[in-house]
Amino acid sequence: MSSERATPGQWLPGDVTPVDLERLLWGLVALSLIADIVTTFVGLNLGLAESNPAARGAIESHGVVGMLGLKAFAVGVALACRPLLERAYRPIVPAGLAVPWLAAAVVNMYTISTVLSSSH
Description:
mainly alpha, 73% helix, flat
């Protein structure tokens, strides 16, 4: 079996194009970014600590503005690198932002829930 002639569009279900997928993933970037920021600051207000050293430094020196700046920088780098890829492969750019931010938000929610359940 060979995938030499396969294109990313062949991997997508139905009528979903790489452009549609990329649009959907940029929406997921926005949601995961908000979820990560909100859950981070809820956790910090409960006495938890930020484990990411870059985020911790940004938050300690500039608060929520520092966190927003850090996220804006990441999105800016992603947008600057996006044109370097063929159109069919561009959905990897927002996926590369959304997946770790979504994972961080899930870990944050789990950690917050354990703190809240142990306080009752």
